[in-house]
Amino acid sequence: MGKGGMGAVYKAVDLHLTYTVALKQTLTRDEALWKQFEREAHLLAQLNHPVLPRVSDYFTEANRAFFVMQFIDGPDLAEIITQRPEPLPPNIVVAWADQLLDALIYLHARERQIIHRDIKPHNLKVTPTGRIVLLDFGLAKSQSPDTSTPATCTSVFGYTPRYAPLEQIQDLGTSPQSDIYALGATLYHLLTGTKPPDAVSRAAALVGSKPNPLRPANEVNRAIGVELAAILNRAMAQNPDERYASAAEFREVLRGVGRSSKPIVLRSSGHQFAVLPSMAGSDDTTTIGGKDEIVWRRGLSPGASAAVVIILILAFAVFCRYYTWKLPPAPDNDENSVPAAAGQTAHANQMSATSEGRHTKQPRPRTRDRGQATP
User: Fold this and answer.
1) Structural domain boundaries in the chain
2) 178 with 240: CB under 8 angstroms?
């Protein structure tokens, strides 16, 4: 399914329980990396969050280490943005960010705080139900939230240049603010369709009194508001202290921008449609992919909606007919009309008889009245 610097991932079948799993294998014989691989398996096995994959087993065989984890169907965001000629809609990206920040709140608030340290489009998958999933904890580290205590965590040095903060690239130590930077850089790429400049290039430009290579997102993509661009700019601040203090604060600010109820259909080669559940906001629809895709709105199905429309039309027709029956008959000015003294006309008798089952207030003519009304 995929291959990286430390391992490869295969789609496999658990023969004992007969269900599809993802099997991750190390591509090194280095025992130190084996230990990190084992730590990753133990780390994920302790987690329980809808945005994070579950791990069910770890083993070694033929000088290789493996662990078994939940199979996540669907394309990753790197595939999606590669196949699109334009950036993703802002409301969709903000909805994904909300899910990811909920996972970061969960990771950063644990007794042994977990820093992912490798958030990027390649490590984010969208499931057929529209849920975003954060993968690859190979660079993650677990540490005490108390920064005053000596560091006791063990992690592998590594980073992805376009999405890693300066402190991670320079190996100065990472914190929850490092994940906030990486997520901000990832959102910038999704919203603008342009990879952000790496933190080293930005620092070099600052030292050399050159323009900041990181252009505001709203200048790259006019569909992005100034407020959202400012939020991304703060999340990607070079100084960790200038970023959001926590993932919770980052999420709260993004929620203030507003989210949409647009369902979204994603299509990537070899994958089924992925529908994003609607959020609070407008009810229009955005489709990502080919012209033949169908978007089913959240709520009533198309058949049910048609039935409701037909019922409303029938109800209106019945009301109009009932209202017509309630009107008194128009006066007959014809010279040959029946005198008023003759009583009820045959037309009035017919109307009264037809209205009998509708609880009208018109009195039902008696037999003798019908006889008197005959000329």
Assistant:
1) 2-70, 77-287, 302-372
2) yes
CATH topology of domain 77-287: Transferase(Phosphotransferase); domain 1 (1.10.510)
| Pair of tokens at residue 296 | 């089913």
Token pair of 149 as six digits:
């205590």
**What CATH class does 2-70 carry?**
alpha beta
Q: Which of 335, 374, 344, 336 is nearest to 362 (CA)?
A: 344
Q: How far is CA 330 from the centre of its chain?
A: 62
Which residue is listed with tokens 């008959």?
329
Phi/psi at 132 (5° precision)? -90, 145
Q: 213: Cβ–Cβ under 8 A, 6 or more apart, which residues? A: 197, 201, 202, 205
Tens digit of pLDDT per residue, the chain (375 long)? Answer: 888 767 889 999 999 889 999 999 887 777 777 787 888 888 888 999 999 999 989 888 887 889 899 999 889 999 999 988 889 999 899 999 999 999 999 999 998 899 999 999 999 999 888 889 999 888 888 887 665 554 445 566 788 999 999 999 999 999 999 999 999 999 999 999 999 999 999 999 999 889 999 999 999 999 999 999 999 999 999 999 999 999 999 999 999 885 544 555 555 555 544 445 444 333 344 444 433 332 333 344 455 556 667 887 887 777 776 666 555 555 544 444 444 444 444 444 444 334 334 444 444 444 444 444 444
Q: Residues with catalytic annotation?
A: 118
